[in-house]
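User: Protein wntless. Structure?
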Amino acid sequence: MPGVILENLSGRKLGVLISILLICQVICFLIGGLIAPTPATAESSLATKCLDKGNNSGKWLYPRGKGRCESIDNQKLYGFYDVEDKKRNEHLKANELVFAFQIPLPRNNITLDYSRWQQNLIGVLQFDIEYYPDAEMDDRVLLTIDARLAYRNKGDPDDAWKLYASSVEERILDCTIKKKKEGLFYECSILPLFELGSLHHDFYLLNVRLPVDEEKKTNQGLGHVADLWLVSINQNGGFTKVWVSLKTVFFPFIIGIMIWFWKRVHQLSRSPALLEYMLIYLGLALTFLNMPLEYLTLAFDMPFMLLLGDIRQGIFYAALLSFWLVFAGEHLMIQDSGDTSSLRNYWKHLSAVAIGCLSLFVFDMCERGIQLRNPFYSIWVTDIGTNLALTFIILAGISAGVYFFFLSYMIWKVFCNISAKRTALPSMSSARRLHYEGVIYRFKFLMLATLLCAAMTVIGFILGQVSEGQWKWDEDLDLEFTSAFFTGVYGMWNVYIFALIVLYAPSHKQWPSDSDHRGSVNEEIEFSRLPTDPSEISSLTTFARKSAMD
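Assistant: Predicted structure:
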């Protein structure tokens, strides 16, 4: 009965296949490093302080274009000569004051607009609060924000703003000052304000009010807000084009190789083995991840794309992590009985993966699921939510590291198991010994590639969690993660899974005759299949099972 291609493919053909795959991997890194821009772009916008004399919250105030608002500066806003008069009128001014942001900002007198390739938008507020002795700010203030977001498109009149979302939100603002001197500014924490799952429109307008109410003690102890900044973070359109192009290329290749693999499996007289089922599940998860759904966002408003992307990523992680455990376990033979392998033998390992992925899904739904209805919602607005989110991210990183070390331990045990059984090789015939030595060498190389892929996946997962959360707790707002790493890891997943499906596909080559062995060149010897149990797909697993030979 034939074995798998990993065992039967000639050394020369295997070398050509590996070389092609390595070239593809290098190209993915080079595309990210030389062609793709940074994954995300941040732009800071200074608010225009608009005066709303009627305190009409339903009116849109915008700083540019026909019908723009009446703007006021700090001197006009706080330019009182009498302290008592200042205190008496300050609340009225605060309720009539609207911080207006019209994004994106023009550049070199050119009106810019958002592109649908930019996919998503995150808004973060930064406060410039000036110190005044007669109105010192509390170290911690429960801030009430009345935020309204609008949009318009090219060709619309300047005042044709349409409501996108509105909400009255509470945020905790922590501020400190090293030296209390008039004219100096507090150092305040950043405040996550909104997150949009799609950038379907050309222009956006944000109106922010900080209402003051003495009876309800709304925004008491805030101090003098000199300026308000909005940091707009969006995915770079150039990076999206490169990312979707990679998906477009990989998508048909993975589908094609899966169809080819499944046809070869069904040509055999036996039923598919566990590892073959796992390869199909892994291929399906990768296919779901590879689907270039981003093309749909160019025509339709799909605010759920961020959530859908996280779900696709989570399904792939679950399939990949589960496959590695089964892949190592099948060669380690963690089951004690001689029964046919099944997922029941790995229920402890897979349960841990399932719980971890389910926790990620629940955490994601708690924020991005609610943001589908209210983009101003954030789990980071309270101390409990912030601590919970940070704890979850830290635990996720630790769990990923623990998983990698556990997988490394399993692979090390596989190597020890196989090395111990190599003592039986000298007693075998030369053809059988040559077969097993070749298979063991190839298998060890594949397992080392698996470890490398696992390490890069864990690093990518941790960096992804950190880069996603940095806008919510990091005050520096630095973009440090390169496109080359993300495109390289993504390409590595496709190259690695493509190689697994090809190398573990059933081979049609049969056991060669003795005359064929004598007439073959040494590099072209086909490592053919040895007779094994019909449920097995690799002679190496059979070799590992035969403990009686030790």
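Residues 40-235 form one domain. The chain has two domains: 5-39+238-549, 40-235.
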